[in-house]
Amino acid sequence: MNAANKRANVKTLKQALEVAEKYGYAIGSFSPRYTPMIKPVLRAAQEAQSPAIVQISHKELVRYGITPKEFADEFYAQIQSEDITVPVVLHLDHTKELETIAEAIEAGFTSVMIDASEKPLDENIATSKEVVEYAKPRGVSVEAELGMIGTTDFVETDKDEELYTDPVEAERFTRETGIDALAVSCGTAHGVYMVRQPKIDFERLQAIRALTPVHLVLHGGSGVPAEMMTGAIKLPQGGVSKVNIATDLELAFLQAIGKEERLTNAECQALNAGLLEKGRAAVQQTVADKITNFLGSREQASTFA
């Protein structure tokens, strides 16, 4: 069963990023982390007439107590009930387990990310290729990672070290795996920047772009200055066309409901209606701000026509 067939506006990652790259903007890959926060992400995209990607990682599924099917079912339910017509993608973020990838595809995810970046290059290629061979015949796009993107909060990945992507390795990696999108390490990190500040290595990005035909993805979009992100998106030969944003959404949600500690998904669902609406409004506002001031994707849904 591929639930993506329910609506024509549900795209694969490849379909979405081809358009974004052609028209020179990036699509936000938003991690609601809680199923009740899927609605405000989609609402913000619809109101801004922007394409959007809704994602969740394997570690987030585990930490917040959600199954891929629960996440996918809520995504498709909200598309239906909110009458979402802008182009959207349902994406499985950082995942090392092939079992989770298979589960997500079965549930209706239109894109998956295999993260074997901690393995030696040959093993990363072999693992990523295996996922491509499983996903592509099922009409699902594949993102992979080369280099290692550091973290500050261990929600999406579990290493804080960073290893920049080598452009020559990137050429071989994309050629041999057949992936659709490549997450590159060039100075950003998952989570909130506490000590070191984000610095995007534009020369490295340009070198990777010159050698690889696939769409480039920047993880760790939370906290990066807008002008720096614009520079990465607007690179002459085509820059970054997917930017992951997770931590900023959760921080906005928790602040709005007066909490400091993250909740489980069940705790979020159990919030009283008033509090839940406050949280949703904050998430919707944050997504709208990113779409307008960060990604350049506002009013770009029409580029899919």
Automatic annotation (TrEMBL):
Source organism: Paenibacillus taihuensis
Binding site for dihydroxyacetone phosphate: 191, 220-222, 244-247
Listed Pfam families: F_bP_aldolase
Residues binding Zn(2+) 2: 115, 145
Cofactor entry: Zn(2+)
Classification lineage: Bacteria, Bacillati, Bacillota, Bacilli, Bacillales
Keywords: Metal-binding, Zinc
GO biological process: carbohydrate metabolic process
One function term, GO molecular function aspect: zinc ion binding
Residues the entry annotates as binding Zn(2+) 1: 94, 190, 219
Cofactor-binding details, from the entry: Binds 2 Zn(2+) ions per subunit. One is catalytic and the other provides a structural contribution.
Name the UniProt record assigns to this protein: Fructose-bisphosphate aldolase
Gene3D superfamilies with a match to the protein in the record: Aldolase class I
Alphabetized InterPro entries for the sequence: Aldolase_TIM (IPR013785), Class_II_FBP_aldolase (IPR050246), FBA_II (IPR000771)
Active site: 93
Signal sequence residues: none
